[in-house]
Design a protein that fits this description.
48% strand, 129 residues, 33% helix, 4 helices, Nuclear Transport Factor 2, Chain: A
Length: 129
């Protein structure tokens, strides 16, 4: 599989709720960077930090969360994804659709870094931050 295929499989696994498959694509020491201004802002290193700091919170705080990708851009060891994250924030009942761009850096078939850029205002309005 090329790097775009790897990232496509990651999104498919995430959508199916198969976190073990997602983690199998992430390097053990992966650096995961979420945009400032959202509930999960910051840098998380390693599987456990990402599970506890991002995935578990998304799963418990959002209903119908979806990370939809419209475009995959192949830049060699980097894959850029463009799309829309959507869902309903449980505490407020407010929905959001936030355009997003993500940069996936891969080495030897594993993601070593993820960096997200998202419409933080759309997320903040739903979460009433």
């Amino acid at each position: 599989m090329n790097n775009v295929d790897i990232i496509k499989s990651l999104y498919k696994s995430f959508a199916a709720g198969d976190i073990d498959a997602v983690l199998g694509i992430l390097a053990e020491d992966v650096e995961w960077i979420e945009s400032d201004g959202i509930p999960y802002e910051g840098t998380f290193r390693g599987h456990e930090a990402i599970i506890n700091g991002v995935f578990a919170k998304i799963g418990s705080e959002w209903s119908n969360f979806n990370a939809h990708v419209d475009e995959f851009i192949d830049a060699g060891d980097i894959v850029i994804t463009l799309g829309v994250d959507s869902g309903t924030y449980n505490a407020t009942g407010k929905s959001m659709q936030a355009p997003t761009a993500s940069i996936w850096r891969l080495k030897d078939g594993k993601v070593v870094q993820f960096r997200q850029y998202i419409d933080t205002l759309a997320v903040a309005k739903a979460a009433q931050l």
